[in-house]
Specification:
alpha+beta; 7 strands; homotrimer
Amino acid sequence: MSGPDMQRLLLQLEVDQLNAAYAAALDERRFDDWPAFFVEDGSYVVQARENFDRGLPLALIALESRGMMKDRVYGVTQTIYHGPYYTRHVVGPARVLAAQDGDGRGLVRAQAHYAVFRTRPGDASEVYNVGRYIDDIVRTDAGLKFASRRCEYDSEMVLNSLIYPI
Amino acid sequence: MSGPDMQRLLLQLEVDQLNAAYAAALDERRFDDWPAFFVEDGSYVVQARENFDRGLPLALIALESRGMMKDRVYGVTQTIYHGPYYTRHVVGPARVLAAQDGDGRGLVRAQAHYAVFRTRPGDASEVYNVGRYIDDIVRTDAGLKFASRRCEYDSEMVLNSLIYPI
Amino acid sequence: MSGPDMQRLLLQLEVDQLNAAYAAALDERRFDDWPAFFVEDGSYVVQARENFDRGLPLALIALESRGMMKDRVYGVTQTIYHGPYYTRHVVGPARVLAAQDGDGRGLVRAQAHYAVFRTRPGDASEVYNVGRYIDDIVRTDAGLKFASRRCEYDSEMVLNSLIYPI
């Protein structure tokens, strides 16, 4: 195998590690760590697949910077009233679609399918939200970060409201 | 780590990428792309685990060439009446069981566990079909292709009928 | 990429293969193979996330050696009366948290999110147990083995009783 081919393959592992760390932070409820998975002006969008397929801009959540993400985390953890629940993300191996690594920062386009399960106290676990992460990832001094993460979810009927990040 | 050991490990990444591309094609409803994941005389079989375990040949679907797969796609997209639904595949990392790479084409035997979730319009997502891919994969000039993909599913009661490929 | 960085990345693949082989053994009901995934004095603990989060030692199952695991398998397959069901594990790519490979045996700390689906005869598949594997893994002459596997599950209400290993 040629060096570049192998580098491309190994990118899957780096993205998998990023996705796994992201999922762990959310499922362990370390919400304050969540904005740091993005670059300073990174964007986080949660959009129904139906709108995505039709090219409609309508999104359930659209945050355009770490600052907005921090506000969101504050809202979720401090002010929004909601019943407690656990989440568990199971994310498949990332599909690496493109990689530009020339300038030392580089941009990786990757996608991964996810399922998020929800467990409410005293209840059985249930399918909560399934869909696809559509990511632009850059390499920074602090490791890989999302320049853009778009969560395109299948579920038209979002179980109750979607409180925590996906 | 020895070179052959590493080559074997890296095969997981190649198979993961193949599985992810396959899942993306189906979930994005690019059904016309589906037969091209197989070699010309590739086979695609969907079989209940119970029949597999008992060595019974009975299969829900058994296609023996790309031509049959194209017919199937035509049937699914043009002629079979069914309620619309989205699918989402979450596939675990592939288990690479054997690899023969000597002759430049090579045969890889691999398996992966999958869960397919279904979402009907206006409804919550639900578990649709879970099981195991049992694959023979060959290396062609156009990349890895399935010589044989057997979808062995656990669910004895298939929710409604199984329309789209698994 | 430096050699050590690559070695660390490749560890994910080795752990993924271990996780996939473990899941395959359980889902294919090769329960007698299960204890051999652990070292002789390995431990296997199944604990509710709520207890884990609160630092409570209470666990649903706690086995401290291969011998205890063999007893458990005997109990499950020979003596405990229960309705039959299939399981299917879908495990995400492992998150490799630490690796010490100096002495040739080495210790790997890794985690992975899992979903286990259950299918009872004549019924649809359902979410059975979701959670996180928290693993200490050592390298032996017979390959990677669990020194400790802790299954921390979200589901407070375990569907019926939990019979087979997770």
